[in-house]
Amino acid sequence: MIMRDKKFWDREIISHPSFLQSWQWGELQEKLGKRVFRFNVSGLLASAIEQKLPFGQTYFYVPHGPVIRAETQDAWTNFLKAFESPDDFKRPVFLRIEPLNREFHGKPIENVLSEAGFRLTKPVQPNVTLVIDLRKNEKEILGAIEHDARYSIRAAEKRGVTVEFLSGKDKERGFDIFWRIFMETNLRHELKTYPKIYYEEVATLEGECSSKIAIARTGGEAISAAIFIYFGERTFYLFAGSRAGYGRFNAPTYLLWQAIREAKKTGYRYFDFWGISHENKNWSKITAFKKSFGGEEITSPGAWDYVFNKPVYFIYNLAKRIIG
């Protein structure tokens, strides 16, 4: 069943530990030219993004979903049927999902998905993240931060670093500052980025899934910036950057600490660092930086594909391996 009731969706999704299944995130994808279909089938809710393949073929991607609201016995069979016999879209080559639940009917969800015909594939989103419980008092949270990071926070305070959080229309004046610092960082470290319009749309998010831009300054000069997303009980640390030549001010560390404090003060229960990796060497520095703040590592079951068209799926994977 395809859902078009935003109020129902928001009510059912709000407790999900990821904003990627929110109605607003689906609208963002639509603004970027994607088609999004929201399913409610036998207790499984999925905001599925249609992805184009060559020769008019498509597949569907359900980031951090489906959301499991009921564990009915025929849930996965019925869920797959919704994609096999569509009225509103072309039958996809495959369906890619990334559930966050660890169990289904008391069984490891990996076993359940395998039995349903899914196969494990390379994750799209990081399948390990770091989460701070903001229900602890501020002293406990600060005490769990590594010594060097705590020193950096104190040093930034002594050197006069300030952090401003921009929301609503104020984000318009903050985005250009963020973008300049963010691009400088990515060029310096030779990192890949999405088109600028993607970050602009993220920065304009409002409603149940909203965003803020944070800017750290010294002497009026912007030296670090980040975008945070707020959804349900969680704050997410999504994009960040810093200017070269200002290392002694420890602005990225201080900005992140202020974001944790701000999230706690405004009533959020969890702070999600949005992905770490112990295997990817390119992520080693950012992983070490995030882990210096403490928190609990949370591992999700990863990405799983259900194949509807095996010959085309084989060609798709072969081309991916060749292209790299």
UniProtKB/TrEMBL annotation:
<keyword id="KW-0808">Transferase</keyword>
<dbReference type="GO" id="GO:0071555">
    <property type="term" value="P:cell wall organization"/>
</dbReference>
<dbReference type="InterPro" id="IPR003447">
    <property type="entry name" value="FEMABX"/>
</dbReference>
<keyword id="KW-0133">Cell shape</keyword>
<keyword id="KW-0012">Acyltransferase</keyword>
<keyword id="KW-0573">Peptidoglycan synthesis</keyword>
<protein>
    <recommendedName>
        <fullName>BioF2-like acetyltransferase domain-containing protein</fullName>
    </recommendedName>
</protein>
<dbReference type="Pfam" id="PF02388">
    <property type="entry name" value="FemAB"/>
</dbReference>
<dbReference type="GO" id="GO:0016755">
    <property type="term" value="F:aminoacyltransferase activity"/>
</dbReference>
<dbReference type="InterPro" id="IPR016181">
    <property type="entry name" value="Acyl_CoA_acyltransferase"/>
</dbReference>
<dbReference type="GO" id="GO:0008360">
    <property type="term" value="P:regulation of cell shape"/>
</dbReference>
<dbReference type="InterPro" id="IPR050644">
    <property type="entry name" value="PG_Glycine_Bridge_Synth"/>
</dbReference>
<dbReference type="GO" id="GO:0009252">
    <property type="term" value="P:peptidoglycan biosynthetic process"/>
</dbReference>
<comment type="similarity">
    <text>Belongs to the FemABX family.</text>
</comment>
<keyword id="KW-0961">Cell wall biogenesis/degradation</keyword>
